[in-house]
Specification:
This protein has 3 domains: 2-232 and 239-422, no CATH class; 425-535, no CATH class; 538-691, Sandwich (Jelly Rolls). The N and C termini lie far apart (83 Å). By secondary structure, it is α+β, with helices and mostly antiparallel strands. Strands 6, 7, 8, 10, 13 and 15 form a 6-stranded antiparallel β-sheet that branches. The chain is globular and about 90 Å long. Helices cover 49% and strands 15% of the residues. Helix 13 (269-278) packs across helix 16. The protein is built from 23 helices and 15 strands.
Length: 692
């Protein structure tokens, strides 16, 4: 009877995963996931690109290709493999807890399933859940060998362990973060002279698998190091390149950012109880790994430290990038010992003061961080712990505690479901298919980067060859290849592309009345225009002035800042400008503009920026008269900086109605470095175009 109840608990959480997919599915990110989808589609067409390092993530590519083969390229087929992987992970968590009592199983499964990012990625076409499954399979194999098999069949468990590690290795390189834990367990067993044969068999079988793998890669690609060559070939500089940026970013990452991320993203829940346990006397004895609880607690702590401190680069110290999806494996591993600690808390009030203290500290910290984890997780959790400890009517009601805990853990997933209902991804998909893809035999679609990738996915990656999709940057607006050209504006995918309305070209920001609005949905903020007039200022306008300041010499229309000219950092030439609160300013009188000829002015600004830290610095375009600025537009620079202490282009253009100009006005273009962050600029270019 008890086993039946435990099985029902497992089924209950599996149903939650399925319901979340139905109610909370939010679609695709439009970058990595669409890359996997394209590779899976190509595999079914017998096309394999070994220059793409994602190709070597065989499990997700092969399973997704199989799903596409069975069900066609669709969102269901894309989600199905990951959902199966997630359910298998829950099964492993259940097996790890199966010998515990029912409340412990319920809580452990809740801490795993209802963790907001775990359930969010449970249906995403990404590799991170594959790593979660690999880590759980590795640890469950070790756990079963140590505590359930009576140390019998070491060869079988060694092979299972090697296969589990190998599955992670061919899924994604982040499996490397488990190596410190495996090394610790190996060394501990050597010290205590236990499981020596098991480890020997594991090493031998692991080396055999790697040998077979590299021989296969050599046969397929001609180079047994092709995977690593592809990774190097596709690597790019970004904010996670800690070894390429000022040391302060590495220090922040190691001593603050990781733990701040865990707290802000609601991933610290289980560790509240684990840390509270570590404050008790002789708690460090768990690192001898002599009991099931000690095994899971040790694994949780070492994996946490490895996730924060371990480098993923062999050539320099570079920890893993801060992104919740890279650390999903911490959730089920830490949930297991946390559930055991919580069970002792609700039955015997063990560690009650330590648990309340740590929970309060985490809650207070989350209050000062961005995000809503304070209100949706840590604050109500702390109130529950306090109430259960000190309020007599509920302090002995274990079922009420468990039920309220599950409700609290459900708050963030419910909020994510609510957000998904507002986004209405499935409705967005229906609109694009119905209005564009199904009704047009021959057309071009111009849109943002994410929407382009997702739209190509909707077409089956080329199965509708009559439809071409371009990003704003890719499209040449003098193209005559097609009679129908559509502009697709979608706020949600533009947001996923990390672009704002001001990043769009002018023809997309303010669509000409010569174009036809085919469809508009103000609720979803989607517009589809059939384009006849792109009104490109480069083609239709008259350049009134173009001026570039490379800070090599004095330039007309630019204010001087000789004291800030520096040769220490420069993009081109001998000098650049070390920007103070304000940069050198471009000043152009607009009274000379023939207002009878031109209806609008287009002001285009281009500047190379080298920023050394996060900043509120902005690129400003303003129109001023003697009374001050009466037109003032800006874009923040920080989001265009892909890595600090490197040079990156920042571009901005603004359209000004000539009728809005007042007498004795000037155009000003400059950078406002409001927080005086270290910022160098070079090749500052401004173009003023008159449009009739």
């Amino acid at each position: 009877m008890k086993n039946n109840k435990k099985t029902l608990v497992l089924l209950f959480y599996i149903v939650i995963i399925l319901l979340y997919h139905v109610l909370g599915y939010i679609g695709h990110y439009g970058f990595d996931d669409m890359n996997y989808a394209k590779l899976a589609s190509d595999l079914n067409n017998r096309i394999i690109d070994f220059n793409n390092h994602f190709t070597f993530r065989f499990p997700i590519i092969i399973l997704t290709a199989l799903s596409y083969k069975l069900f066609g390229i669709s969102d269901f087929a894309s989600s199905l493999p990951t959902m199966i992987i997630t359910i298998l992970t829950l099964l492993l968590v259940f097996k790890a807890l199966k010998n515990q009592n029912l409340p412990t199983i319920i809580i452990g499964m809740a801490l795993t399933t209802l963790s907001n990012w775990f359930i969010f990625y449970s249906d995403k076409l990404m590799t991170d859940m594959y790593i979660v499954l690999s880590v759980m399979a590795i640890l469950l194999t070790l756990y079963c060998h140590k505590f359930r098999s009576k140390k019998q069949r070491p060869i079988l468990f060694a092979i299972l362990l090697s296969l589990s590690v190998f599955f992670g290795f061919i899924s994604k390189g982040t499996i490397i973060l488990i190596l410190p834990l495996l090394a610790y367990l190996f060394i501990t067993d050597l010290i205590f002279k236990r499981d020596i044969k098991f480890w020997i068999y594991t090493i031998v079988s692991g080396l055999a698998l790697l040998t077979i793998y590299f021989i296969t890669i050599e046969w397929l690609t001609g180079s047994f190091l092709k995977r690593f060559e592809s990774i190097a070939q596709n690597s790019y500089l970004n904010r996670c390149s800690y070894n390429e940026q000022p040391i302060i970013f590495l220090l922040r990452r190691v001593f603050y950012d990781f733990f701040e991320m865990l707290t802000r993203q609601g991933m610290a829940t289980s560790y509240i109880f684990i840390i509270a346990y570590m404050l008790k006397r002789k708690a460090w004895n768990i690192f001898k790994v002599e009991t099931p609880f000690a095994f899971w607690a040790t694994a949780s702590i070492i994996l946490l430290l490895s996730a924060n401190f371990m480098s993923i680069s062999l050539s320099s110290y570079a920890p893993m990038c801060i992104d919740p999806r890279h650390y999903l494996y911490l959730i089920p591993v830490s949930a297991i010992p946390a559930a055991m600690i919580i069970k002792e808390f609700i039955t015997d009030k063990k560690l009650k003061y330590s648990i309340i203290a740590i929970s309060s500290v985490v809650a207070i910290a989350s209050f000062f961080l961005q995000g809503d984890s304070f209100w949706k997780l840590y604050f109500p959790l702390t109130i529950l712990l306090l109430g259960y400890t000190f309020i007599k009517p509920i302090k002995t009601n274990q079922k009420v505690f468990s039920a309220v805990l599950i409700v609290i853990l459900s708050l963030s997933p419910f909020a994510m479901i609510n957000y998904a209902q507002k986004i209405q991804y499935r409705e967005q998909r229906s609109i694009i298919k119905e209005k564009l893809l199904n009704n047009n035999e021959d057309c071009i679609i111009v849109t943002n980067h994410v929407q382009k990738n997702i739209t190509e996915y909707y077409t089956g990656f080329g199965k509708k060859n009559n439809i071409e999709v371009f990003t704003y940057d890719e499209y040449q607006n003098d193209s005559t290849r097609c009679s129908k050209i559509f502009l697709l504006k979608n706020w949600y995918t533009r947001y996923l592309s990390n672009t704002s309305e001001k990043d769009l070209p002018l023809y997309a920001r303010t669509v000409s009345s010569n174009n036809q609005l085919v469809y508009s949905n103000s609720h979803l903020n989607i517009e589809i225009w059939q384009m006849h007039d792109f009104s490109s200022p480069e083609l239709t306008g008259t350049t009134l002035l173009k001026s570039t300041n490379g800070f090599e010499k004095d330039e007309a229309y630019w204010t001087k800042q000789d004291e800030n000219i520096s040769g220490e950092y420069k993009y081109e030439g001998e000098y650049a400008l070390h920007t103070g609160q304000y940069s050198s300013t471009f000043v152009y009188p607009v009274d000379s503009v023939n207002q009878e000829v031109f209806r609008h002015l287009i002001i285009q600004a281009d500047v190379m920026c080298n920023l050394f830290d996060t900043s509120n610095a902005s690129l400003i375009i303003s129109i001023d008269n003697e009374k001050g600025s009466y037109i003032w537009e800006s874009i923040g620079i920080n989001k265009y900086i892909k890595a600090y202490s490197k040079w990156w282009p920042v571009k901005y253009e603004e359209k000004i109605s000539v009728s809005d100009l007042k007498e004795n006005s000037v155009i000003k273009v400059y950078i406002w470095n409001s927080d005086n962050t270290t910022l160098y600029i070079d090749n500052f270019s401004v173009k003023v175009i008159g449009v009739k």
